[in-house]
Amino acid sequence: MIRIRRVSDNTTRVNREVLQQVQDILREQFPSLTSLDIEKIPDLLMNPMKHHFRFILYVLEGFRGTVKAFALISHEPHLKFCYLDYISTARQAADGGFGGALYETVREQAISLGATGLFFECLPDDPELCKDPAILRQNKARLRFYEQYGARPIINTAYETSVALGDDNPPYLVLDDLGLGKPLRAHKARSIVRAILEWKYAHLCSPEYIEKVLNSFRDDPVRLRARRYVKPMNPIMLPEDGKLRKISLIVNDKHFIHHIKERGYVESPVRIEAIRKELETTNLFEPVFPKEFSEKHIRKVHASDYIGYFKRVCKTLAPGKSVYPYVFPIRNAARPPRELAVRAGYYCIDTFTPLNENAFLAAKRAVDCALTGADKILEGRRLAYALVRPPGHHAERRSFGGFCYFNSAAIAAQYLSSYGSVAILDIDYHHGNGQQEIFYERKDVLTVSIHGHPKFAYPYFSGFEDEKGFGQGKGSNINHPLPECITSEQYLKTLEKAAQQIAVFGPAYLIVCLGLDTAKGDPTGTWGLLAKDFDQSGKTIGKLKLPTLVIQEGGYRTRVIGINARHFFTGLWTGQFRS
Ligand SMILES: [Zn+2]
To answer: Angle 186-200/207-215 helices, nearest 10 degrees?
Structure first.
């Protein structure tokens, strides 16, 4: 399996190994780099301000995390440009189009960041500037490759002047306008070139040299070299504008098999359809089919006796028949009841979450959807939404309840935590007891929940303010229990505070447990949030600018659930990309 993944930091073992491989490729492919240049790569990701740019690293991974190619870009938000620091394949990786796939990802990323151009250096294809015929051939091949995308050297400047007299092979400055067709004005080009030379190459370029290059930019707008290798833009090479800005939408295609028809059971299939119909009226989403993942991901979060029980008992149940737990043998953990149906209470926290023939299959598929969303985030997508039922946030390590069986959010968080720290923000009306219990002693996963106070709201036994985590996890669980009746202002103020707490934690990834049962008229809640409040909630969360995976939890007033979801996502998108 080959996949492109964005690496955010070096806080996990997996990422440290990847960074080492990236450094090995640099040593191998760029012999002129100093060991200092190579050693500082992790620091570029961890301390962007120190280096004036925000750095973004993409790796193309093969089996067992072998890095076959990588690209490092830097983004300067004020001048609105990106600079491609390195793009390279590992020597032993025969180029199977890896460079092209990575370069296209880099361009999409640059477009989604609002950059007006992607700059980089490329060695010259002019025999006057490059004396070695073998190197000249390589240089030509590279410039031909970039020319397919319309990227060409900027001409009529002194950029390619050797820093030291007589140096062979001085690089061109190449500009890819990302297909946007915006002319680059001379004054802006000067500011960008100053930023590149002063912040990236100060150790090589004297202030006099930099001034000389800046003064040489006379064309206004600047001009690119005429095409030399490729005819004008082949339409398939045009970037798909804003593709990375679409929200990946993964819908549980098996949710309807889990249908409990008893009167008053509010967790019904129509919930998903109501949301999906409303989202279709926007153009913000890109549907993604759920992949199937191994059960090992569930086992990392849930106890294997619980998983085994859940799977087995569902298989024994007759179609259409539900079993509600009614005996809770909590006092003798060593002797679970032998009768499978009676044993339900051994793993359940309440009397209203039934087991049925398809509960396992539907819950497993919800997990697949959440993990597919997590994969999209790892590939560099900023927003993904797993529209699933059954929900999951009440499921603890070895118990189900509150219509939940597997904690999809916790399983996705566990999966992402191999690549960077994670924050889970639960905005369902009911406390997210599942992920609180699962990560209570972990410091790499922050759990935050805003909910009705447990003194009057389900699950009644957790969600209190003084539950703050334990051991290593002390301080990484935050509960915001709120009164039975609140105003929108009170709610939004609390959400703002939770967002600040997440910003302080500084996670690489955010997971949102989206409950829409905070809405006015929800049969399971007491609050009165309106569509505009969901829009504002989305904005507040989007402004955190974190790669965000949203997972559907509760919300049972089907007449408004879709409208509220649409407002939440419009707000989330606006917060992420337009603020
Ligand atoms: Zn709920």
So the answer is: 160
